[in-house]
Amino acid sequence: MNLAGLKIGHTTDEQMHTGCTVFLCPPNTVASVDVRGPAPGSREAMLLQPDKPIQFIQAIMLTGGSAFGLATADGAMRWLAEREIGHPTPIRPVPLVPTAVVYDLFMNDGQRPPDAAMGYQACQNASDAHVLQGNVGAGAGVTVGKWGGFQNIMKGGFGLHSVEIDGLVVGAGAVVNAIGDVVKADGSVLAGAREGNGRWLVEKNPYRQFPSLPQTPVGTNTTLVVVFTNAKLSKIEAHRLAQRAHDGFAIAIRPVHTTHDGDTAYALATGQVEASFDLVANVAVEVVAEAIRCGVRQAKSVGLLPGLASENGG
Which of 220, 214, 218, 208 is nearest to 182 (CA)? Predict the structure, then answer.
């Protein structure tokens, strides 16, 4: 799978079902971000806004552990600093590592969240070949379909998808921790709120009305996406690409961008080929949707929590 010059690395705590995932950027990678969910947890998000002068970053970190997991960025900064990689300043290069979190504390009672050592190891593990998907990295402890209550949820995970068209590469990595269901291209449910008999709850509740009791905790669901391309984009165009990525969220997740979500999309442009922005954006919408679906297709069961990969013999 072509990653447009990026390298992706996971560190996974299999015992605690948490972890982190880093996207290491080649030099002069332009970046921006668009946050649609009202409950995000992040670091360096303002730096990526299109009115800020910084153009290039060195890595993006996606992590479990809620706000505790932001510590993983410290490990990535140390790894980059040891290699003198960072934004140039008069004294020394300063690595810029925007970071976003998912809330996976239900899986481990909030014990042993990802830390700086895990962030460092994710950088050590980074590769542009054979990147694992499913219950790995920031996807280790994520779930989907929580709109119908925790007794009906399924396992989410980390998904990755990329396409190449005449030398243009557009891809996306997704950490799928949605309150909504993940749906197929025809709108039918792929993974989500499901009764014990295997029937989807949406069949009885077509508007996916949340139960009044127990109430779904606000801010405990977030889908994170990094959309990447080898196209040459300005920072403003990268911001527009991050905006368009949310169209892919809406295609693959129902409902999305709710009060309970912190949905965040990053865009990275490594600047290797000339391409029409609209082509890049149109392809990005499709690859984001497919990366989200890959995240649940590759997810394995954890205890009594069902995952599609286990059910399908993966």
Answer: 208
* Element spanning 292, H or E: helix 277-297
Helix (H) or strand (E) holding 122: helix 116-125
State how far the Cα of 91 lies from the Cα of 162, in Å rounded to an integer. 38
Amino acid at 90: P
Percent residues over pLDDT 70 in the chain: 97
Tokens (6 digits) for 269: 């442009």
Paired residues of 312 in beta bridges: none
For 90, the token pair is 């008069």
Rounded to an integer, what distance in angstroms lies between the CA atom of residue 291 and that of residue 145?
A: 17
Which position has the token pair 């990535």?
Answer: 76
CA distance 307 to 145: 12
Residues 251-279: tens digit of each pLDDT: 999 999 998 888 999 999 999 999 999 99
CA atoms within 13 A on the CB side of 191: 30
**What's the CATH architecture for 7-311?**
4-Layer Sandwich (3.60)
| Separation of CA 98 from chain center | 13
Secondary element (H or E) of residue 105 = none
- Closest-CA residue to 103 (of 311, 247, 261): 261
DSSP state of 304: T
CB 25 within 8 A of CB 31: yes
**Axis-axis angle for helices 116-125, 72-82 (nearest 10):** 50
How confident is the model over 40-51, as a mean pLDDT? 94
Backbone phi, psi, residue 57, to 5°: -130, 170
The whole-number pLDDT of residue 207 equals 95
From residue 110, alpha-carbon distances to 64, 71, 105, 122, 223 in Å are 10, 15, 4, 21, 19
Residue 132, φ and ψ in degrees, nearest 5:
-70, 150
Distance CA(35)–CA(43), nearest Å, equals 12
Contact at 8 Å (CB) between 184 and 225? Answer: no
Q: Which residue has the tokens 């042993």?
A: 112
